[in-house]
TrEMBL record:
Name recorded for this polypeptide: UDP-N-acetylglucosamine transferase subunit ALG14
Domain of life: Eukaryota
Compartment list: Endoplasmic reticulum membrane
PANTHER family named among the record's database cross-references: GLYCOSYL TRANSFERASE-RELATED, UDP-N-ACETYLGLUCOSAMINE TRANSFERASE SUBUNIT ALG14 HOMOLOG
Coiled-coil region: none
Keywords, alphabetical: Endoplasmic reticulum, Membrane, Transmembrane, Transmembrane helix
Transmembrane segments: 12-34, 122-141, 147-166
Lineage: Eukaryota, Viridiplantae, Chlorophyta, core chlorophytes, Chlorophyceae
Short name of any one Pfam family annotated for the protein: Alg14
Family affiliation: Belongs to the ALG14 family.
Topology with respect to the bilayer: Single-pass membrane protein
Gene3D superfamilies: Glycogen Phosphorylase B (3.40.50.2000)
Keyword Membrane tagged: yes
Amino acid sequence: MKSLAGLHSGLIYAALAIVLGVFLLAFRVLYVMFRRSPCPARMKAAKTLVVLGSGGHTAEMLMLLDSVDKAQYSPRSYVVAATDPMSGPKALARERVWQETDSPTGFRIHQIPRSREVGQSYITSVATTLCSLVFAFGLVFKEAPDLVLVNGPGTCIPVCAAAFVYRVLGLAGTRVVYVESIARTRRFSLSAKLLYHLRMADLLFVQWEQLARTYPRALYAGRLY
């Protein structure tokens, strides 16, 4: 009887420990989601991980980087989808120009599996998204960026999710900044909706005022490039 009583008590303590752990984890998730640290008046150089989403997204991101002080966002690393043959060379060419005109800062280019190809069914995209997540977690842990800069599309979600999880676990303090495409005038893209509603983005900029009215937590920045 004593052994049964001891087993029963042990199970109760284990259950309480699990409940407490779940509660603390949920509290931490909500804390990270809803807490917004004030931006410093003068930001030191931030190690930046830039996700290039292919096509027009890559073009817009590189134009955005054209307009910023590269020394403030350095060193830089780029993430491109493994099936995107164009974004990596474009980033390389632009970086070579910047290295000649600005102070050399160094950069790297990484590939991860694309979470979902254009036209791919949502059912099969579950497996490819999980695969992309595995690579994204490894990459974000290795790079340990201060800032993740993204503008969609789906390639950016696993990277942002990895940065968010590491922040919840207290392993990193990475901030996520999303810049919505100038082509989005009235509605968010799917990537923006996910980052906005799940609060994974610390800052989410839009380039049309009516879009900011639809999504109050988005920041209207005007045309950025």
